[in-house]
Write a structure and sequence with these properties.
10 helices; 17 strands; about 350 residues
Length: about 350
C-alpha cells in the first residue's frame, strides 16, 4: 500500500501568501500579524513553507560535502547578556565503576540559540519596559501568557515534530563586504549600528547570491570575531551594561517587507539580538513582527566564522542547513544545534 501523503496546511506555498501590504490578517489583532494564515490552530508559523518540494530543491545545495557546525561552545559567554544564567557543567563519576555522566545547567538563550514562538510577545498597549515597548501578553496566534504557563501551545517541540529548521541556508557576509570600504570599523559591532536593507542587498550582489522562497537567512556581522578579540575585562564590562549595545539588522518597515515578501522561514546572525540592540524603532521591532506576528524563528549568536571562510573559498554562499531544536514540550527556546553542509 502506498504511503499516505503528509497532511497539508491551508497554505503551503509562498505563491498563495498575501503581500506585506495586506497585513494584519486578523484585523482585530496587533499590527502586522499573520495569524490564521496557516489555519486557526497552527503552531509552527513560517516553517509551514518548508514543503517537500522546497526541501528536495534545498538538498541540491550539497556539492562539496563539507560539514560545518554553527554553534558556539556552550561556555563561550562567561557572562551572558540580558542577565541570563551562566552555563554549568559537571562530570559525575559513578564510583567505583569506570562510568561517567554529564550534568548540564543552562539558559537555552545564553549562547547560540533559536528564539521560539513563546519567547517574545507582540505590542498591544505599548507599555514601556527596559527601553522597548512590550506587549499585552499575546504571542503567536493570540496565545496568552496564561496559556504559556498552563499549556504547551506553540512550544519549541512543535518545530521538532515538524522536522526542525531545515532547508536552504543563505549567508550574507556583511563583515566581509564592509571590510572593502575605507570606513570599516570592527568596533561598530559593540554599538547599536543598524544594518539597512541597502547593505544586505549590496552584500548579496557582491556575492552573486540570490534567494528562494523557504530560505533560512544568515547574516554575519563580525560580532563573534570582534568579541573573541576583546580582553576579559572589556567583555565583562560590556556584558554588565543594562542595555549592552550590539550591531544588528535594522528594525524597519523596509526590512520587514523584504523578509516577508522574499519568503524566508527563519533568520539568524552571529550577534546577540539579530536586530540592532537596544531596539531602535519599536514600531518595526523584528522580534515582535517575526516571532509573535509571523511565527518566524530568530537565531542569535551563531558561529558563522568557519562557514564564512568556506563559502568564500568555494565562492558559494548557499548551502544545506539543518537544526533540530531541543525537544522540550512547551519550551520557549533552544540551543542552536545547527549544521551547514556545502
Amino acid at each position: 500500500m502506498a504511503e499516505a501523503p503528509p497532511p497539508t496546511s491551508p497554505l503551503r506555498s509562498l505563491r498563495s501568501r498575501p503581500p506585506f501590504s495586506a497585513l494584519p490578517l486578523l484585523e482585530s489583532g496587533p499590527r502586522g500579524n499573520a495569524w490564521g494564515l496557516y489555519g486557526p490552530d497552527d503552531e509552527i508559523g513560517a516553517l509551514n513553507l518548508l514543503t517537500p518540494e522546497v526541501i528536495r530543491e534545498a538538498a541540491k545545495e550539497i556539492r562539496e560535502g563539507i560539514r560545518i557546525c554553527t554553534d558556539l561552545p556552550l561556555d563561550f559567554l562567561k557572562q551572558p547578556f540580558f542577565n541570563r544564567d551562566v552555563f554549568k557543567h559537571e562530570i559525575r563519576h559513578k564510583k567505583p565503576r569506570s562510568v561517567n555522566d554529564d550534568w548540564v545547567g543552562l539558559n537555552t538563550q545564553s549562547v547560540s540559540q533559536w528564539d521560539g514562538l513563546r519567547h517574545y510577545g507582540i505590542e498591544g498597549k505599548a507599555v514601556l519596559i527596559a527601553s522597548a515597548y512590550q506587549d499585552e501578553q499575546k504571542y503567536y496566534g493570540g496565545i496568552t501568557q496564561d496559556e504559556i504557563h498552563n499549556t504547551t501551545k506553540i512550544g519549541i517541540h512543535n518545530m521538532v515534530s515538524a522536522g526542525g529548521i531545515t532547508g536552504r541556508g543563505v549567508l550574507l557576509d556583511w563583515d566581509r563586504w564592509s571590510r572593502t570600504h575605507p570606513n570599516y570599523n570592527a568596533s561598530l559591532t559593540t554599538t547599536t549600528h543598524s544594518i539597512p536593507l541597502s547593505d544586505l542587498l549590496a552584500v548579496a550582489s557582491h556575492q552573486n547570491t540570490f534567494f528562494k522562497p523557504g530560505d533560512i537567512l544568515f547574516v554575519r556581522t563580525g560580532w563573534t570575531a570582534h568579541w573573541s578579540s576583546l580582553p576579559d575585562t572589556a567583555k565583562a564590562a560590556h556584558a554588565s551594561l543594562a542595555g549592552a549595545p550590539a550591531i544588528g539588522v535594522q528594525s524597519s518597515e523596509e526590512i520587514l517587507r523584504w523578509l516577508w515578501e522574499t519568503g524566508f522561514v527563519a533568520v539568524a546572525g552571529d550577534q546577540p539580538a539579530f536586530e540592532a540592540y537596544p531596539f531602535v524603532d519599536v514600531k518595526w521591532q523584528l522580534h515582535q513582527w517575526c516571532l509573535a506576528g509571523w511565527g518566524m524563528p530568530i537565531g542569535e549568536l551563531f558561529d558563522l566564522e568557519r562557514l564564512a571562510r568556506e563559502c568564500e573559498r568555494v565562492g558559494k554562499w548557499s548551502f544545506w542547513f539543518s537544526a533540530a531544536p531541543l525537544n522540550v514540550p512547551g519550551g520557549v527556546a533552544s540551543t542552536g544545534n545547527g549544521v551547514a553542509v556545502l
